[in-house]
From TrEMBL:
Keywords: Hydrolase. It comes from the Bacteria. Belongs to the RutC family. This is RidA family protein. Its EC number is 3.5.-.-. It comes from Streptomyces sp. R33. One of its GO terms (cellular component) is cytosol.
Amino acid sequence: MSERNDHHITRLAAPEGVHPGTGYSHVAWGTGRFIAVSGQCAFDEQGEVVGPGDASAQARQVFENLRRCLAAAGATFDDVVKLTYFVTDVAHLPAVREARDAVIPGDRQPASSAVQVAALFRPELLLEVEAFAVLPVPAARQAGSAG
């Protein structure tokens, strides 16, 4: 059983009796402020699809969009406890993993689910990723002060 505790988040690669996964934790939990990031697709700042037909280009853009959304809430990929991948073909998963591994260290992999879908809302989109994160409670609030 491999467990990593990063102050406010604990990631458990595999509980006792559960086979360890590759590139994800089976369980992750945290204490603090919960952040939900809607599924992100490969849109640039102008709303144009990045990399039509190119899963690697789309995955890089998706993780950049996730980074920006997390930053808007004061979070980073270190705070992510769960990722859900929606792909139009499981053959796109290696590209998704490569983009994920570029921003999330192997020892901090969140809990994850991957779902193959018939299609996303635009035919040129190959994947979508949503994230859930936990930020630590500010010290003043932990101490019970109104701050």
